[in-house]
Amino acid sequence: MYDLCDKPPSDERRNFLRLATASAGALLLSGALPNASANPTPTPLTVLNPAQALARLMEGNKRYVADVTKRRDLMVERDTLLNSQHPFAAVLACADSRIAPEYVFDSGLGELFSVRVAGNFVTDEVLASLEYAITELGSLLILVLGHERCGAVAAGIKAVNHNTTFPGKIQGLADAIKPSVSKVLHAPGNLLDNAIEQNVRDTVARLKSESRLLANALAAEKLSIVGAIYRLHSGAVDLIA
Description:
- The structure is a single chain.
- The protein has 241 residues and is an alpha/beta fold.
- It folds into two domains: 4-38; 50-239, Beta-carbonic Anhydrase, Chain A (3-Layer(aba) Sandwich), CATH 3.40.1050.
- 47% of the residues lie in helices and 11% in strands.
- The chain has helices at 11-30, 50-66, 74-80, 101-104, 124-135, 151-162, 170-183, 191-209, 212-219; strands at residues 89-93, 112-116, 141-147, 224-230, 237-239.
- The chain has a five-stranded mixed sheet with strand order 2-1-3-4-5, with helices on both faces.
- The protein is globular and about 50 Å long.
- One of its GO terms (molecular function) is carbonate dehydratase activity.
- It holds the Pfam family Pro_CA.
- It comes from Pseudomonas poae.
- Its EC number is 4.2.1.1.
């Protein structure tokens, strides 16, 4: 059988290939064809106010729940952030390994300022970190993110109901959450769920009242502080405060 692949290319075919190669190169230089090096460096979308920052977070969560998250070039993102960062939002989340704010809100590097502590409650260090995000980095939103089946809140319940003591510094964590537990101890419904939500609400209230820097940003409408619960099964984030 005659194999076309073995036939030497004719002068006509050579000329065609040269022309095709030259045309593709011209299109590439003009931007008509896609090229990784020609793509603009990704930068955070412009966020003008706290409401837009919250909307952007929730839109990202919808993508996460639907499993249609954005594809990202992490190498380019790293290079973009070498000299500065401008996270549009700060997230105070529990340290639970099942929750990662960057995944939950489908955010890239440099977009979120994440502060994490078991039980997502306020300490001096947490407050200082959030003040830094708002006053120095220009973040427009603080979202306090609790989650279902929180072990830290469960420890607070044991401390209230059974006077359970815990080893090391864990006792201090349980003690910090006890006030929220006590507020809902006799409320209808599931105690753990109620305490988790109350802990988020109390944390939001403390952030609004215990920091002059945050209070000033709130008064100037340059900041919003909200609370939410992460649903472990669905991945959805529900705003509650």
